[in-house]
Amino acid sequence: MDRTMGVVSAAAVLTTGVATWALYKWLETRNRLKQYTDKYSDSKEVQRQLVHQYGTLDDLPQLKSLISQEADNYHSKLSQFCSEVCQKHGVNKGRVLDVGCGPGGLSFHLSSHFQKVVGTDISYSMIAAGQQLKQFAEFGTPFSSEGGKHISFVRIRVPDCALREKVVFWDEDASALFYTSGKFNCIVVSNTITDMENPKAFLETIVNYTEPSGLLIISDVYNWLNGPEEHLGGEDECLTHSVLVKTLEQDWTYEEEINIPFYVPRCKRLAEVGNAHVSVWKRKPEEN
């Protein structure tokens, strides 16, 4: 009897411990997601992303002479590259998924190359801005001059090359797509991997939403908070690309890479400049 009670007590303690740990992980995940959605739902951040994705250096005269012209039109260049590699590798330019699309700048550029574009983002505010542009094609957005209340207005306009009817936006976490999402010929992940709650899970499951021999294109500056080893499981002093190879090698073949520079304005006199590493991965044929 005493032994039975001891086993029951131990089981109860173990169950309580597991439940407590599970609750802790759930709360931790919820808080991280909240931090992300709060950041990208902030009105100033939406405005910055609008200027980043639709503006040009002509909208920032105080920065124009300081930022290389090569960093302008990042989304146009990336969409053109996606089109070219699909053609090069014999991939049908049918459905393309724009992961972490923000207010839709890349999605609209992709519409001139692909038959159907799905832009997805976890931030409702970003998706709402993209949807508004799909409907009205242009509007003016306030943009902080110096981070405070003094603002100017920047004209935001869908690219002339865009075919808006081809674009749809989903307010959805790409790390947990619904099975009804269907499959895509090309999946583009631009400056989003490092913001994901669980990028490793995303990379391991996105193959389920890719057509056989489809392409995965990752463009990022890899500005991790604590390095790739924290979220992708790398060891020692590793770089993201080497970890991506290990993570994707089961289902994907690494094909090629380029660099595309860009900038993100923070206010009229300040911008972040990056050089995105763009890597191309082709899904391996399904085994019979």
Supply the key terms.
membrane; globular; single chain; 39% helix; 288 residues; two-stranded antiparallel ribbon; Rossmann fold; transmembrane helix; methyltransferase activity; SAM-dependent_MTases_sf; alpha/beta
Describe the structure.
The chain is α/β, with parallel strands linked by helices and 288 residues long. The chain has one domain (42-283): Vaccinia Virus protein VP39 (Rossmann fold). The chain has helices spanning 2-41, 43-54, 61-64, 74-88, 105-110, 124-136, 199-205, 228-232, 240-248, and strands at 95-99, 116-121, 138-144, 151-157, 167-171, 184-190, 210-220, 252-267, 270-283. The strands form 2 sheets. Strands 5-2-1-6-7-9-8 form a 7-stranded mixed β-sheet. A two-stranded antiparallel sheet has the order 3-4. Helix 7 (199-205) links the parallel strand 6 and strand 7 (210-220). The radius of gyration is 22 Å and the shape is globular. The protein starts with a helix and ends in a 5-residue tail after the last strand. This is Phosphoethanolamine N-methyltransferase 1.
Provide a short characterization of the protein structure:
The protein has 288 residues and is an alpha/beta fold. It is 39% helix and 27% strand.
How would you write the strand order of the largest sheet? 5-2-1-6-7-9-8
Strand content: 25-35%
- What's the gyration radius in Å? 22 Å
Structural category: alpha/beta
Largest sheet: 7 strands, mixed
Helical fraction: 25-40%
In CATH, the homologous superfamily goes by the name Vaccinia Virus protein VP39
How many separate structural domains?
Answer: 1
- What is the CATH class name? Alpha Beta
Please tally the β strands and state the result: 9
What's the average pLDDT?
87
Shape: globular
Distance between the termini: 56 Å
CATH-assigned fold name: Rossmann fold
Number of helical regions: 9
Note poorly predicted spans: none
Order of helices and strands: HHHHEHEHEEEEHEHHEE
State the CATH architecture.
3-Layer(aba) Sandwich
Keywords: Membrane, Methyltransferase, Transferase, Transmembrane, Transmembrane helix
GO molecular function, one term: methyltransferase activity
Protein name: Phosphoethanolamine N-methyltransferase 1
Organism: Portunus trituberculatus (Swimming crab)
